[in-house]
Amino acid sequence: MAITKIVRQGIADDAIDGTKIADDVINSEHIVDAGVDSAHINDVAASKLTGTIASGRLSAANLGSGTVPTARLGSGTANNAVFLRGDNTWAAAGSTSASDLTSGTLADARFPSTLPAISGANLTGIVSQGRNLIINGGMDVWQRATSFALTNGKAYTADRFWLNPQSVASTHSRQAVTSPIAGMASQYCLRIQRNINVSATGLIYFATDLESTNAFACRGRKLTLSFYARKHATGYTATSDLFSLGIVSGKGTDQTLVNGYTSGSYVANQSNTLTSSWQRFTVTTSSVIADDITQIGLQGTRTSVGTAGTNDYMEITGIQVEISDAATDFEHRSYGEELALCQRYFFKTQPQSVAADTWSWGGGLTIAPNTGNRQTGGTFPVTMRASATVTVLSTDSSTGKVYRSGSHVAASIPDSGENGFRLSVSGGVSTSADAAMCFYADAEL
Amino acid sequence: MIITNAKYLKHNVTDQNTAVQATINGVECSVPLDENNRHYAEILKQVADGDITIAEAD
Known about the structure:
The complex is a heterodimer.
Chain A: E1 82-84, E2 90-92, E3 147-152, E4 155-156, E5 162-176, E6 188-194, E7 204-209, E8 223-231, E9 242-250, E10 265-273, E11 279-284, E12 295-302, E13 313-323, H1 335-343, E14 346-348, E15 365-367, E16 374-379, E17 389-393, E18 401-404, E19 407-416, E20 420-425, E21 435-442
Antiparallel strand pairs in A: 1-2, 3-5, 4-5, 5-6, 5-7, 6-13, 7-12, 8-11, 8-13, 9-10, 9-12, 14-21, 15-21, 16-20, 17-21, 18-19, 18-21, 19-20
Chain B: E1 3-10, E2 17-24, E3 27-32, H1 38-48
Antiparallel strand pairs in B: 1-2, 2-3
């Protein structure tokens, strides 16, 4: 009887000797999954491995050793000048675009020792000298004096800055910066202080006005104001420890904020919460300065609450306004540069260590002995903003007089301009004595 | 700004007024006739308001 079918269960383990199975007798479709264990696959000739290995039959993780031939990885010829591209092609490496460098830092060695020439027109956004529109923002120059007792009305203190207390007895003074300010190595600051036991709580205005000529450059650009400020730890009485400061624009010519600018308005303003530590505050205009603006200034206010103790003060320095939509480091100018900028608005002949209302012959005028009505002239070191108001002082610091032959005699200034003045001494100068005087000139806004 | 004793000064050649001598906030000074000068602008304002007068030059 012929055997027509042998079922799997009818074949005992190891019952069939592999050598008894002729070539091509068993087709792969007759081997069920896991039907032949690896122990019974031995020495399969490569010629028997044909067709395609189905997905999942050979995991790349099982390639435990050896090297995959490059022909199995991509088309083309593999060598040390090509790389395997994502489309399975051995391709030559192309040039690298600088725009592909999206992270990391180029080493210095990758730059040539001599950089190529670049047109200045292509250098934009460079942080340059002269960017601070505010003169004396570092509170370096104090030509008039270093301490000012005020109650009412506008009065210049540090050069270019004025205060205007509203019926508040107050003292505003130069103070040395004794603790370092991070990012701003300032020598001095301005202290704005309500006097002890004063209960008046009017505002104290703090401001500077740019002359119109300097405002035109701001048109069509955003401005950023930055400054450093702090308060006394416990003595400052302003509501919520606030101090506000902002940029004001206007449409007049060389006006002052004490009278208001024509069409004046804040283009940036901010209330700043002070602490006993120096902080830098910044604020940027929300839009560009309009093309019809002819005036730019800064105005701040401090409030007061209750009765002042001994330390009802705040301090400010490092004031900068720049044509930018972000604050850059405070621009330090040399003292000589800052002084020359200030002298366009105020100039004195006394040494800088002597207040302007005090006699000192630091380079004032003399008139050689003569008789009759005697005249002389003085020249300012820089061209002043406008024809200057001139005040002469005699050796006893009396104003409108000069020293002559042991007395102080009247002097007048019939001519004064932007560059100098002419002085006339009543009664002339005797043949036996010189006349001496010092003077200061004011062309502030 | 407290202004007192305002008086014109004349140029000795042209015989024209060239400045105002005045005491401003207690300080005697000479103010040029320049409307861009803040002291002269204030003198003009106070004259217009009738607060001060400027005496003629000697």
